[in-house]
Design brief:
Helix content: 40-55%
Largest sheet: 7 strands, mixed
Radius of gyration: 48 Å
Strand order of the largest sheet: 17-18-20-19-21-22-23
Strand content: 5-15%
Membrane topology: Single-pass type IV membrane protein
Pfam families: DnaJ (PF00226), Thioredoxin (PF00085)
Subcellular location: Endoplasmic reticulum membrane
CATH architecture of the largest domain: 3-Layer(aba) Sandwich
Number of helices: 28
InterPro entries: DnaJ_C16_autophagy_reg, DnaJ_domain, DnaJ_domain_CS, DNAJC16_TRX, J_dom_sf, Thioredoxin-like_sf, Thioredoxin_domain
Number of domains: 6
Structural class: alpha/beta
CATH class of the largest domain: Alpha Beta
Protein name: DnaJ homolog subfamily C member 16
Length: 790
C-alpha cells in the first residue's frame, strides 16, 4: 500500500520535471542573442548597429547569397536589428534576457508563473507578421477601403503613393521588411505617401487595387494604380516612384532657352521657378515638388556643371556651393524671391512655393483660381477684396494693362488681391458686371469685389471713370481702396456671378487620346509582366469573339460545300427523272459565280403530286408556274431568271403545271379558294372557263394548306394594251389578257407572253417577307383531278 502511494506521489514530480525540461529547451531554442548575431557590444551606438546591419544584410541577402543557411541567417539578422534598433526592446532584452517572441518575465500578462517552471504561451506563437507582432508600418500606415477612396485617391493628384500589400503568415514579407523600412523613411521625407494594406483585414481594398498575392508593392498617382515588378531593392523602388511622375514636369534650362522659358509666364499665367544645382539629374525632391504645384508654378532646372549655363549663373549671381531657387513673376530680369540652402528640405521648399504661388496680377482663367484668389468671406476680420480689371487681349489695351500691373506691385494691403479677365474669354461674367446688352466692347473697367457665398453672390462697386492707366485713374482707385478700409459698406451692388470658363481645358479629342494611350499602356504593362489574373476578363472576351468568328466561317464553309455537292445534277438535260417527272435545268452565267448556276424546275404530275405538295415538309413551299405547251419554253426561261436569286433558300421548291393536261385541277383548286378568284366579277360563271391561266404562279404550302397567288401584269407597251396593277401589287386583280383576244403575229404574242412574269421578282420578295395575302383551302384536290387524259 505504501509502495503504491510512493509511486503515485512521484508521478506528478516526473511530469513537472519533464515540462520544466521541455520549457527550458523551448526557451533556449527561442532565445536569440542579437549582439552576437550582429557582432556588436552592448555599449554599441545606434549608428554603429545600423552600419553593421547594412553590411550583414548585403552579405546574407538570399538573392545574393545562395548558401543553404543564408535565408535563416538573414532572418536572424533582421530580427536582431529590430530588437537593438528599438530602445524599448533593447532595454527589455538587456534587463530580462528575453525577446518579444519569448515573452519576458517582467510583464506578467504575457505568461503565468507556476511553482517550478514558467509556462511560455509563445509555444503557440509563430514569429510571422501577425497582428500582435506587426511592424511599425502596419500600424502607422495601415489603409482602409474608405480611407483609400476618400483620402488617398484625391491626394494622389498632388503626390504619388507607395503601397505595400502584406498579410499574416507571409514569410516573404519578412524578407523585404528591412528594405521597405529604409525606403519609407527616405521617400516619406521627400513627400511620397505611404500605405500598407493587410489582405487578411482589408480583402475588399486588395481586390479593388487588383492585388492578388503577397507581398506586392504598387504605386498610385492621379488615381491610377501601377504595380512594381522588379526586385525589392532601394534603388529600384526609388526609380519606380520617379517613373510614376509625368515626364515633362521640370524643363531643362540653359543659356539657349532661358528667355523663352521665363517669358512664357503670360501664356501660362504662372510664376516660373528655377533651381540651380550641380547634379546632372533633376533631384527627386524637386520633381515631387513640381508635381504637387503643377497647377500653379512652372518649374525649370539649371545644371551648374554645364558650360551652356555659365551666362545664367553670371546673370543672377548664383553661388555654386549650395542649391539656389529663384522665382520669377511678371519680370524676367529680376527674381521676385530667392532661397539658398545646403540642405534643401521639403518644408523649406513648400513654404517658399506657397508664398509665391500666384503672379502679382494673375488672369482669372478658371473657377478654381478665382476661389483661391478671392475666397468667400468667412468672418468679419477675414475679409478679402478682389480688385478686378475687365480688359481685352488686343495690343491697344497693353498700356492700360501694364499700368494696372504697376499699381498692383505697389500694393501693401494684405486683404486686397489684384486680377484681370479678358472680356472675350469670360463673356458671361463681364456681361453681369458691366450690364451691357449690345455687342460693342466697352472700355476697360475696374471693379472691387467681395464674395459672399460659394454659389456666386458678390458685393461690388465700379470705380468711376473707367481705366486707361493714367495717373488720375490710379488716384481714383487708391482713394476707393482707402475708403473701403474705413467703410466696407461702399460695396453697394450685389450680383450672382456664373462659374468661370476653363480657358486651359483641353479639347475632347485630346483628352480621349490621352485616355486611350493610358489604357493601352496599362494593357501592355500587364501583358509584359504576366499579370494574367487581371487580364483574364479581357483575354476571355477576345478569345470568345475569335472563336465565334472562326466557328461561323468554318460552319459556313462546310455548309456551302455540302450544298454544292447536293446540287450537282444527276441526269443530263432532257432525260426523265426516276419518279417519272420531267426535270429542266436552265444554265445562267453571271459576272460573279453564284452558288448554283441553274434552276431546277420539276413538272407537277400525278406521280410527283404527293411528294411535292401533299406531303411537303413543314415550313417548305412549292412555287408552281402555270403554262401551256405553246408557252412552255418562253415562260420557263423567264421564270428561271426571275426566281434565280431565291434558289439559295432550302425551303423553296420550283415546279410547273401544264394547263393542257391538268386544267381541271387548276379550276378545282381556285374554286376551293373563292377569295382568290375575285378576278372577273362582271363576267358570268360561263365565262370563267374561258380564263387564261397562263403565266399564273402559285406558292403552295402543303402542310398548312394555303396558297399565295401571282397574276400576270404587263409592263411593256407592245400591241397598245397593258394590264393594270391592282391594290395587291402583283397579286391584285386587274384586266387580264386572254390568249386569242386579238389577232397578233407570232413575234408579238411571244413578246407579250414573255412580259407576263416581269413583276415576279418583286412578288417573290414579298413572299419571303411573309407580307402576301394567304388563301386557305379545306384540302388539296384529289389525284383524279391531276391525272391527265389517257
Amino acid at each position: 500500500m505504501a509502495r503504491r502511494t510512493r509511486m503515485f506521489l512521484t508521478f506528478p514530480g516526473i511530469v513537472v520535471v519533464c515540462l520544466h525540461l521541455l520549457g527550458g529547451s523551448m526557451e533556449t531554442a527561442n532565445e536569440v542573442d542579437p549582439y552576437k548575431i550582429l557582432g556588436v557590444t552592448k555599449s554599441a551606438s545606434q549608428a554603429e548597429i545600423k552600419k553593421v546591419y547594412k553590411r550583414l544584410v548585403r552579405e546574407w541577402h538570399p538573392d545574393k547569397n545562395k548558401n543553404e543557411g543564408a535565408e535563416d541567417m538573414f532572418i536572424k539578422i533582421t530580427k536582431s536589428y529590430e530588437i537593438l534598433s528599438n530602445e524599448e526592446k533593447r532595454t527589455n532584452y538587456d534587463r530580462y534576457g528575453q525577446t518579444d517572441d519569448t515573452q519576458p518575465y517582467g510583464h506578467g500578462h504575457y505568461g503565468h508563473r507556476h511553482d517550478h517552471f514558467y509556462f511560455d504561451e509563445s509555444f503557440f506563437h509563430f514569429p510571422f507578421n501577425n497582428k500582435g507582432n506587426r511592424e511599425f508600418a502596419d500600424s502607422k500606415y495601415a489603409l482602409h477601403f474608405n480611407q483609400y477612396v476618400n483620402d488617398v485617391v484625391p491626394d494622389s493628384y498632388k503626390r504619388p503613393y507607395l503601397i505595400k500589400i502584406t498579410s499574416d503568415w507571409c514569410f516573404s514579407c519578412i524578407h523585404i521588411e528591412p528594405v521597405w523600412k529604409e525606403v519609407v523613411l527616405e521617400l516619406e521625407a521627400l513627400g511620397v505617401g505611404i500605405g500598407v494594406v493587410d489582405v487578411g483585414y482589408e480583402r475588399r481594398l486588395a481586390n479593388h487595387l487588383g492585388a492578388h498575392r503577397t507581398p506586392s508593392i504598387l504605386g498610385v498617382i492621379n488615381g491610377k494604380v501601377t504595380f512594381f515588378h522588379y526586385a525589392v531593392v532601394k534603388e529600384h523602388l526609388r526609380q519606380f516612384v520617379e517613373d510614376l511622375l509625368p515626364q515633362r514636369l521640370v524643363e531643362k534650362v540653359t543659356d539657349r532657352n532661358d528667355f523663352q522659358f521665363l517669358n512664357s509666364w503670360h501664356e501660362q499665367n504662372k510664376p516660373h521657378v528655377l533651381l540651380f544645382d550641380q547634379v546632372p539629374v533633376v533631384p527627386l525632391l524637386y520633381k515631387l515638388t513640381a508635381f504637387a504645384y503643377k497647377d500653379y508654378v512652372q518649374f525649370g532646372y539649371v545644371d551648374q556643371g554645364l558650360s551652356e549655363t555659365a551666362n545664367l549663373l553670371k546673370q543672377f549671381n548664383i553661388n555654386t556651393y549650395a542649391p539656389t531657387m529663384l522665382v520669377f513673376k511678371e519680370s524676367t530680369d529680376k527674381p521676385a524671391d530667392i532661397i539658398q540652402a545646403k540642405g534643401m528640405k521639403k518644408q523649406i521648399i513648400d513654404e517658399f512655393i506657397t508664398n509665391n504661388k500666384f503672379l502679382l496680377v494673375p488672369r482669372l482663367v478658371n473657377q478654381k483660381l478665382f476661389d483661391e484668389l478671392c475666397p468667400v468671406k468667412q468672418f468679419h476680420r477675414r475679409r478679402k477684396y478682389c480688385v478686378l480689371l475687365i480688359t481685352g487681349d488686343e495690343e491697344s489695351y497693353t498700356i492700360g494693362n501694364q499700368a494696372f500691373l504697376t499699381f498692383a506691385s505697389t500694393n501693401t494691403l494684405e486683404v486686397v488681391r489684384f486680377a484681370y479677365v479678358y472680356q472675350r474669354l469670360q463673356q458671361s461674367l463681364c456681361d453681369i458686371l458691366l450690364k451691357t446688352k449690345d455687342s460693342t466692347p466697352p472700355p476697360p473697367q475696374v471693379f472691387i469685389l467681395e464674395r459672399r457665398n460659394p454659389a456666386g453672390k458678390v458685393l461690388y462697386k465700379e470705380v468711376a471713370g473707367g481705366w486707361n492707366g493714367t495717373d488720375e485713374d490710379k488716384q481714383r482707385l487708391l482713394d476707393e481702396l482707402e475708403r473701403l478700409q474705413k467703410d466696407p459698406s461702399i460695396l453697394n451692388y450685389d450680383a450672382m456671378l456664373p462659374e468661370l470658363n476653363n480657358e486651359f481645358a483641353s479639347m475632347f479629342l485630346i483628352r480621349w487620346i490621352y485616355t486611350a494611350y493610358d489604357y493601352i499602356s496599362e494593357i501592355l504593362d500587364d501583358i509584359l509582366h504576366n499579370n494574367w489574373r487581371e487580364m483574364m476578363p479581357l483575354l476571355s472576351l477576345i478569345f470568345s469573339a475569335l472563336f465565334i468568328l472562326f466557328g461561323t466561317v468554318v460552319v459556313q464553309a462546310f455548309s456551302d460545300s455540302s450544298e454544292d455537292g447536293k446540287s450537282k445534277p444527276k441526269a443530263k438535260e432532257g432525260t426523265k427523272a426516276e419518279n417519272g417527272g420531267s426535270a429542266f435545268y436552265f444554265i445562267l452565267f453571271y459576272s460573279r459565280p453564284p452558288k448554283k448556276n441553274f434552276v431546277e424546275v420539276t413538272e407537277l404530275t400525278d406521280i410527283t403530286y404527293t411528294s411535292n405538295l401533299v406531303k411537303l415538309r413543314p415550313g417548305h413551299m412549292n412555287v408552281v408556274l402555270v403554262l401551256t405547251d405553246a408557252t412552255k419554253n418562253v415562260l420557263l426561261s423567264k421564270f428561271a431568271k426571275e426566281v434565280y436569286s431565291f434558289t439559295g433558300s432550302l425551303t423553296l421548291h420550283f415546279s410547273f403545271l401544264n394547263m393542257d393536261k391538268h386544267s381541271a385541277w387548276m379550276e378545282t383548286l381556285l374554286e376551293f379558294a373563292q377569295d382568290a378568284m375575285q378576278i372577273d366579277t362582271e363576267e358570268d360563271d360561263c365565262a370563267r372557263h374561258k380564263i387564261d391561266y397562263t403565266g399564273y404562279v402559285l406558292a403552295l404550302n402543303g402542310h398548312k394548306k394555303y396558297l399565295c397567288l401571282f397574276k400576270p401584269v404587263y409592263t411593256g407597251e407592245e400591241g397598245g394594251s397593258s394590264e393594270e396593277e391592282g391594290p395587291g401589287g402583283a397579286t391584285g386583280g386587274g384586266k387580264r389578257s386572254r390568249s386569242g383576244s386579238t389577232p397578233r403575229s407570232r413575234s408579238t404574242a411571244t413578246l407579250q407572253i414573255h412580259h407576263k412574269l416581269d413583276r415576279l421578282g418583286l412578288w417573290m420578295e414579298r413572299l419571303m417577307e411573309g407580307t402576301l395575302p394567304r388563301y386557305y383551302i379545306p384540302g388539296w384536290p384529289g389525284l383524279d383531278k391531276i391525272t391527265g387524259p389517257k
